[in-house]
Amino acid sequence: MCQCGKNKPLSDIEYLIKASGRCFSLDAIPVLAIDTTGISIMSLPISLEALRVLDAIDRRGSFAGAADDLNKVTSAVSYTIQKLEQDMDMLLFDRQGHKAKLTPAGQYLLEQGRQLLQTSERIVEEARQLANGWESRLTLAVDSVMPVFPILELVGHFYREEQGHTDIRLQEDVLGGGWDALLNDRADLLVAPLHPEFARGLHQITLGYVNFHYVAAPDHPLTRLQRPADDEDIREYRAIVVADTSRDRAPLSTGLLDRQPTLTVSSFNAKIAALKQGMGSGFLPVKMADPLIEEGVLVQIPVVKEREPVPVSLYWKPKPGGKARDWFVQNLPSHLKLQCKKVGMDL
Question: Is the pLDDT of residue 347 over 90?
Answer without folding.
Answer: no
